[in-house]
Amino acid sequence: MDSYITAIGTAAPKHGFSQLQIASFMANALQLDESGRRKLQALYRLTRIDRRHSVLPDYGASPDQYTFFPNTADLEPFPTVGQRMDIYRKEALPLALKAIQDVQQSLTQPLRPTHLITVSCTGMYAPGLDIDLIETLHLPTTIHRTAINFMGCYGAFNALKTADALVRADPSARVLIVCLELCTIHFQKKTDDDQLLSNALFADGAAAVLVEAQPDPEQHTPAFRMRTFFCDLFPEGKHEMGWIINDYGFEMTLTSEVPTVIRQGIGKALSRLLEHGGLAIEDITHYAMHPGGRKILEVIEQQLGIDSHENRFAYEVLRRYGNMSSATVLFVLKTIQQHLLDDSSTGNILSCAFGPGLTLESMILEIVRPKTVIPKTVQNRLELGLHGLS
After folding, report:
1. Suppose 53 and one of 12, 205, 331, 368 were both cysteines; which one would form an S-S bond, judging by CB atoms 3.0 to 4.6 Å apart?
2. Residue 307 and residue 294: Cα distance in Å, rounded?
3. 131 within 8 A of 142, measured Cβ to Cβ
4. How far does Cα 15 stand from its chain's mean position?
5. CA distance 2 to 168
6. How far apart are CA 102 and CA 96, in angstroms?
7. Other Cβ atoms closer than 10 A to 211
């Protein structure tokens, strides 16, 4: 029995800011001098991010208009973990619902999940997001629930592997996965290079997917059959990427050595993924890489022998949204799915993400087109022809 990703939904908070707006906020909060401001702006320009979103309006406001951070030049007293978790609990459900609504819009029938998997590394509370979703969506109280927490950017892969196992064991299962990350509520007021880099990359977002035993033949969007997964650890990099709970929020460690560690191990790891799937690199037609940052994407391209155009879907998401941790790779898959509505190509998608450990999670998906699907470009031509005959 196979399992398929049949629908993908995404959502970003309403507050969107240009990268230079956020750089200005950071420079003010860190009280940088003119030289420091120029260096920070240069760092932000190099990220290849144009825009990021946050549940907080503060990143585009003047200090007297802040709604979360103190209305002081140095943001003191700095918000505590408790204050940040209050924001998470308030904002998580509405954003998750937007992503689920986006899933429902691409379906030809009601969602009706039998299983619910929630993924997050940026907030926790109990009763949690899963129960809030059940109550708000009026789902059965007997629905099977799984929470995947604190895994970072590769969390979605563990959710997909869990959904894959559930569907293969029970073909009647319909598994709804919700990845919800509010990274921006954890801004850290530090000036070391690693923290400056983290502050330059992360953003808020949510994504949801439905996993089933077979695609709906009436559905217009292509489905993705989950062919194979592969996970590996690069222990030499475990100190280069981390995520700990501190007194003033969740603190990310992301050093400039991460691309070096990835360079040393990704080629061999992805070769093993292809071997597990009985495929060669020539069988891969699309790439859905988690855009952890520009340098990480460039290293992946070098090791796989692909160019930035082949990796363009990751760059597009990075440019428009930044790094939204676990939700980001699902944004990339959604972008590919939308692209395939105008492109009749088939084949396989190679996808991977990295996180604390240093962990590599990867998978191969096969593009499956419903029999009723007609690419939009072809459909438009047919409609024009029929109109001319009428």
Report:
1. 12
2. 13
3. no
4. 18
5. 6
6. 10
7. 27
- Return the residue matching tokens 């949204």: 321
User: What CA–CA distance (Å, rounded) separates 378 from 383?
Assistant: 9
The token pair that represents 371 in the structure block: 């029999």
The structural domains of the chain, ordered by start, are 4-212 (3.40.47.10), 223-368 (3.40.47.10)
State the Cα–Cα distance between residues 54 and 375, nearest whole angstrom. Answer: 34
By residue count, the chain amounts to: 390
Q: Which residues of 240-267 are buried (b: 16+ CB within 10 A; e: fewer)?
A: bbbbeeeebbbbbbbbeebbebbbebbe
Paired residues of 342 in beta bridges: none
What whole-number distance in Å separates Cα of residue 307 and Cα of residue 348? 17
- Whole-model pTM: value is 0.93
pLDDT tens digits, one per residue of 15-38:
999 999 999 999 999 999 999 999
The sign one gets for the Cα dihedral 42, 122, 14, 189 is negative
